[in-house]
């Protein structure tokens, strides 16, 4: 017997009132929250419910009755598909408003500690072509448009693609021919790589089995004009050499051409080594009068111009004095530590990617800085009582962990060390709020400064300054 299909739930004339976490907007229907992607607060829409939970529904738009005054026309043809720039249809001023609000909401609802009025967010000078790093994935079974379906069986459609993962679909790649977050050169390099590989019949990755020669393409640029291309492959052979040689000839602007061999089932790169094919094995970045050498697989803030503003804000909020010892946790290539070194007695950076720590040492030498010391390893293992006894109690700790925030053991260690000031830099205000909540009985939040590093996305960088509570 055929099961009776439940009728679709349609909600008419839903007013969108807010922009929530993960970039999805919010409306209210009866006592439920309705999450709707790709709309803008102020829109009035009809939606179809696609997921039902007790306290909320997830829904998609089926008709728009009123367009919000905050709407703009999204310029990307992959908008609503790629999932990268969920707010490209919202004007930039409103994006900034909702990012700042995200910080406030997380601090209020997750953190539940007291904090002062959050500063106006520092906006990004560039709102397009601001990314200095793009990572694309090769797939032999790209996402196909409906218009292509009937020609696939006849062999008339090339199913190879090079682009981004569809949101929450690990094995589907959206073939990208233009991305507004990257500059023209980056777009040209990606498209040329795809065309060359297809013309030469080089195999693209099968994402289910992780077989096929070509896996990822990483393009990095820097504020000094450096361009690095890293090809991730399952083996280095003549076909790969041919592709690299083609890139070298076609794009003399490339200053580093590298490849990485990856035969693992996952594409994480922290445990892999980048090999040089031609040019430098680093990128050079500039922050004020400092130069930074960035290793191929090492972290650097993805918006170089905003990185300068972020570091300026961190420096102001740290209020470093010549008598201070500063620890910079999760230091990457030592950028924050080295920006502070000339104002401090001593700076200590800790980071687990060894090549980044090597670069941090080199960066200290490059900038003639002698009071900076760097250590490689997992934060939990390095930041021990012995380490602090050996390197001196810090007056200030700057911490800039990845999205997951700090390990609870690291937070406990901060509570043991008890520096006068903690400057917590985060790209995820939810985990930042969680961690600060653990520190809040010993620290007061003195200032909160959001910075926009990622226009058109819901992501926000946030700096919180914590001051040790007085004993009485
Ligand atoms: C958000 S980045 C910050 C980098 C640096 N502060 C900057 O502005 O360029 C986080 C850094 O933490 C490092 N990291 C992640 N987990 C770590 C851990 N458990 N121990 C030490 N470092 C870690 C990453 O490699 C990355 O360089």
Structural class: alpha/beta
CATH homologous superfamily of the largest domain? Vaccinia Virus protein VP39
**What bound compounds does this protein have?**
S-adenosylmethionine
For the termini, the CA-CA separation is: 74 Å
Q: How confident is the prediction overall: mean pLDDT?
A: 95
Quick tags:
single chain, alpha/beta, OB fold (Dihydrolipoamide Acetyltransferase, E2P), Rossmann fold, seven-stranded mixed β-sheet, 11 helices, 26% helix, globular, binds S-adenosylmethionine
Protein model, in words:
The chain has 472 residues and is an alpha/beta fold. It folds into three domains: 10-71, Nucleic acid-binding proteins (OB fold (Dihydrolipoamide Acetyltransferase, E2P), Beta Barrel); 97-127 and 299-468, 3-Layer(aba) Sandwich (Rossmann fold), CATH 3.40.50; 133-286, OB fold (Dihydrolipoamide Acetyltransferase, E2P) (Beta Barrel). It is 26% helix and 30% strand. The protein is built from eleven helices and 21 strands. The chain has helices spanning 92-111, 146-152, 184-199, 238-250, 304-318, 335-341, 354-366, 379-382, 385-391, 408-417, 429-439; strands spanning 10-19, 25-29, 32-36, 44-52, 56-66, 133-139, 161-166, 169-175, 214-221, 227-233, 256-261, 274-279, 283-287, 290-294, 325-329, 346-351, 372-376, 396-399, 421-426, 443-451, 461-468. A seven-stranded mixed sheet has the order 8-7-6-9-10-11-12. A seven-stranded mixed sheet has the order 17-16-15-18-19-21-20, sandwiched between helices. The chain has a five-stranded mixed barrel with strand order 1-2-3-5-4. The longest helix is centred in the N-terminal third of the chain and has 20 residues, at 92-111. The protein is globular. The mean pLDDT is 95.
């Amino acid at each position: 017997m055929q099961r009776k299909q439940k009728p679709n739930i349609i909600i008419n004339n839903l007013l969108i009132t807010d922009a929530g976490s993960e970039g999805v907007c919010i409306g209210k229907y009866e006592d439920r929250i309705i999450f709707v992607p790709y709309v803008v607060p102020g829109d009035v829409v009809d939606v179809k419910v696609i997921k039902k939970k007790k306290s909320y529904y997830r829904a998609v738009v089926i008709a728009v009755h009123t367009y919000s005054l905050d709407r703009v026309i999204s310029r990307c043809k992959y908008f609503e598909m790629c999932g990268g720039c969920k707010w490209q249809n919202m004007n930039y001023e409103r994006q900034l408003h909702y990012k700042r609000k995200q910080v406030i909401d997380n601090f209020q609802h997750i953190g539940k500690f007291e904090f002062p009025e959050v500063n106006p967010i520092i906006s990004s000078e560039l709102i397009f072509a601001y990314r200095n790093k793009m990572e694309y994935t090769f797939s032999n079974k790209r996402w196909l448009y409906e218009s292509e379906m009937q020609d696939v069986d006849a062999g008339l459609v090339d199913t190879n693609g090079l682009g981004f993962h569809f949101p929450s679909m690990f094995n589907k790649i959206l073939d990208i021919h233009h991305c507004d977050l990257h500059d023209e050169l980056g777009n040209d390099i990606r498209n040329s790589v795809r065309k060359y590989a297809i013309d030469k019949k080089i195999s693209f990755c099968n994402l289910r089995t992780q077989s096929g020669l070509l896996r990822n393409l990483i393009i990095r640029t820097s504020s000094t004009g450096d361009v690095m291309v890293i090809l991730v492959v399952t083996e280095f052979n003549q076909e790969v050499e041919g592709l690299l040689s083609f890139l070298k000839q076609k794009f003399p602007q490339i200053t580093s051409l590298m490849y990485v061999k990856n035969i693992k089932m996952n594409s994480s790169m922290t445990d892999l080594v980048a090999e040089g094919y031609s040019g430098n094995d680093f990128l050079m970045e500039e922050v004020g009068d400092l130069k930074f050498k960035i290793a191929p697989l090492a972290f650097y803030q993805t918006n170089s111009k905003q990185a300068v503003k972020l570091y300026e804000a961190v420096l102001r909020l740290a209020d470093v004095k010549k008598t201070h010892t500063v620890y910079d946790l999760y230091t990457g290539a030592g950028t924050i530590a080295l920006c502070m070194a000339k104002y401090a007695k001593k700076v200590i950076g800790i980071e687990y990617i060894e090549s980044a720590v090597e670069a941090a040492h080199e960066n200290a030498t490059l900038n003639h800085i002698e009071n900076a010391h760097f250590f490689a390893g997992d934060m939990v293992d390095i930041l021990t009582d012995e380490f602090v006894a050996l390197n001196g109690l810090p007056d200030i700790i700057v911490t800039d962990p990845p999205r997951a925030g700090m390990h609870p053991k690291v937070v406990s260690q901060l509570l043991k060390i008890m520096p006068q000031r903690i400057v917590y830099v985060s790209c995820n205000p939810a985990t930042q709020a969680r961690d600060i909540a653990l520190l809040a009985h010993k620290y007061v939040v003195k200032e909160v400064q959001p910075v926009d590093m990622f226009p058109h996305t819901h992501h926000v960088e946030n700096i919180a300054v914590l001051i040790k509570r007085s004993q009485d």
